[in-house]
Amino acid sequence: MGSQANTNVGIMAYLxxxxxxxxxxxxxxxxxxxxxxxxxxxxxVEQLEKRLRxxxxxxxxxxxxxxxxxxxxxxxxxLKITQAIEQRRxxxxxxxxxxxxxxxxxxxxxxxxxxxxxxxxxxxxxxxERQASAHLSEVGKHLEAxxxxxxxxxxxxxxxxxxxxxxxxxxxxxxxxxxRKLAALPLCAVIEGIINAGLYARGVETGLIGxxxxxxxxxxxxxxxxxxxxxxxxxxxxxxxxxxxxIGIGSLILAIAIAIAMAMIIGHYRDALALDSENPFxxxxxxxxxxxxxFSDVTSFVLLILTLCFAIFALWHAYTMDDVYPGYGxxxxxxxxAKQNYEFALQILREELEEYKNAALKQLDNxxxxxxxxxxxxxxxxxxxxxxxxxxxxxxxxxxxxxxxxLGIFRQENSIHRTTPPPKYFSQLPQLKSLPQLSFxxxxxxxxxxxxxxxxxxxxxxxxxxxSAIDAAFNRQYEMAQPLEEHFNKTKHGExxxx
Length: 499
Description:
This protein is mainly α. Helices cover 77% and strands 0% of the residues. It has 3 domains: 1-27; 28-122 and 355-465; 187-319, no CATH class.
């Protein structure tokens, strides 16, 4: 009766163990393996042993004499260990395969990039010339209009020289700004007024301030009259036509006479103020009629001399601030302005072409750098592919070592805690499944890198010729925009006509 009870208990224990194993198989998940580190990091035997609780499981099964002595193949925890190792090996394989695909794809892309760069580099000069030509077409009409204006103004200048029998260039004063030259006349009036103010102050009730304003008004009138004659009328004496020449000579005599008369008026007016005359203008009129050269004191005579000197200076300055031949300066300035407008437009065009040129040269340099970088990276990819094989092989070997170690731990602990002999298969180590073969051969890549290096060396050799071609294209395009340059060099505002 007792023997039957023990048998029933043994059967129940066996059924419980079978159910537990079935549940383990249904709920088992492959252990997670750290793949965030290095691609081929070796399996951490100690970590995996703790995660699967191999020692505890080996002891528990050993106390139950499981697996039985007559078992012929691994099962249970041993299968979990094997599957975990197989999973890691598959990760090694997938990682190596993915890396190989990346290397091969990247290598091919770099090879195509290098080839495209060298081809593109050979067309940089042509692209620059097309771009420069298109830009020149855009601004061509404007340049043509400016060039035509230069031509017309130059012809106008030559005609003026011919009609007026001029065999000299315009005066340099005619081509400079009038702003400073015109400013000299009011400045001259101010200086004269300041100098004369003290001479008038003595006879004016308002003192120095009142003397200054009277002196300034009279000095302004003196300078204005002399300047008007010098700028407008006296130059007529240089005209080729006799009538205008006579007008100019007469204007010069009249200007000098007016300057003397103005100086006398200012001097006698100062006398009238000094003598406290009730009617200064009547006093001045009487003195001019009866005693024009008689003054009450020497100060009034000094005032006369100063006034006359300032008038003569204003007459001379106004006469010489433009070309002394009537109208010559105006025509010359129009011609010079037209030329400056044209040359300024050419300068802007040159700067724009320079920008295109510099961009083309920079593109050429960038292309060379890109090609060299591609060749360098291709070399590194070949080395990486070679190294990948060794790391992959080492990782697979480490997985076999991890399997042997983990199974050894389980079988040793299980044997220690058994009361029956261990199964015979404990003395045998299982072999892992074979993985598909991966090709790490670099023969094709080595052939391609040699071709790439030859292509790169040939391209670098021709870079200088591309630079020269860009410079030549720049000069061609710029010279096309200068149709009047030879004309300018020959004429130079009358040199050709004078010759």
